[in-house]
Amino acid sequence: MKNMSDKNPVNWFEIYVDDIARARKFYETVLGKEMMELPMPEGFDDKMVAFPWAQGGVNATGALVQSKMLAAGGNSTLVYFQTEECLAEQNRVEGAGGKVIQPKFPIGEHGFCSLCMDTEGNMFGLHSMK
Asked: Which terminus of the chain has a lower count of CB atoms within 10 Å, N or C?
């Protein structure tokens, strides 16, 4: 069994949004994956939908959160989504209502990235090895 120092440090992320239905549709369209509703603990009126995950999977997962406490956009969180070929997802961004900020670019031996903005004003990255 591996110890905690062998694991990647990120295990969850949250992207705060103003319109969870719009943001969900955007990410489902761009990533080609269905998200799932997460129940909120009693006393919370926030809304949350999670990106898909596999129990024991190797990558981090997270959720979109609509909260009265935190607004979308203008934050310093940048989440990178692992893809097979980031150009495919990048090409779906504008049709889903977002913007491509920096088209696919090489990052040396670490592959390629695209930087995009979702419908809520949040910047995110797409990463692939090809």
From this structure: N
